[in-house]
Design brief:
Structural class: mainly alpha
Radius of gyration: 36 Å
Largest sheet: 2 strands, antiparallel
Shape: flat
Strand order of the largest sheet: 1-2
Helix content: 40-55%
Number of helices: 7
Length: about 210
């Protein structure tokens, strides 16, 4: 009786399996199959005005079908590893650290104090700290049970801005009438000239707060 491994070996050609590079290409000349949602699956909408909305469609990229190398996406090293310039910079940085430590020891000795401990952590401590930083995840803030998402108005940005400006204009008129009334009660006459300028300044200050 054949084993499962023998059956698999006879059923499939090992050379074909190891060298097979058959991949399904995507539509529109894509190298890979598209993973974007179809139009019926899209849930994102935008307001088009008049209380109506429409589905937001995806925009096609200009570089479809072009294979980009990693050198175009990532910063590549400007010099070879272990080059003379890199070694010189590392040596200069180490020398500066030693100089600072020596000056700190001399200053402590003059004061009669003990030499300060080096601030450079050990390799094991640095590894532990890095592991903690990488493993720590931000805590998710709980959503308030009273939260209710705002309902879409169906108005376009232009219509919303127009509505906002109309409301501000109406509110500014109310505040202007209030300030003019206060001035009349205080002086017994309507504001004119500089007095009216001051009244409008009060209105503007109230609108900005």
């Amino acid at each position: 009786m054949k084993t499962f491994f023998q059956f698999c070996t006879e059923a499939y050609d090992a050379d074909l399996m190891s060298s097979s590079q058959i991949r399904k290409t995507g539509s529109g000349g894509r190298i890979r199959p598209t993973r974007k949602k179809s139009e019926p699956e899209i849930r994102r909408t935008r307001a088009v005005g008049g209380g109506k909305t429409e589905v937001v469609k995806y925009k096609e990229r200009k570089d479809i079908g072009q294979q980009r190398s990693s050198s175009e996406r990532q910063q590549q090293p400007e010099q070879e590893r272990g080059s003379a310039d890199v070694k010189a910079k590392a040596a200069a940085a180490a020398k500066e650290e030693r100089k600072k430590a020596a000056l700190a020891r001399i200053a402590a000795k003059k004061k009669g104090e003990s030499a300060p401990a080096t601030s450079q952590p050990k390799a094991k401590e640095a590894t532990k700290t890095a592991s903690k930083l990488l493993s720590k995840k931000a805590e998710k803030k709980p959503v308030s049970p009273k939260y209710t998402p705002a309902k879409a108005s169906g108005l376009s940005a232009k219509e919303r801005n127009k509505q906002t400006r109309e409301g501000e204009r109406y509110l500014r008129g109310i505040m202007k009438d209030q300030e003019v009334k206060k001035y009349k009660q205080a002086t017994g006459e309507a504001p004119k000239g500089k007095a009216m300028t001051k009244v409008l300044a009060h209105v503007q200050r109230r609108m900005s707060t």
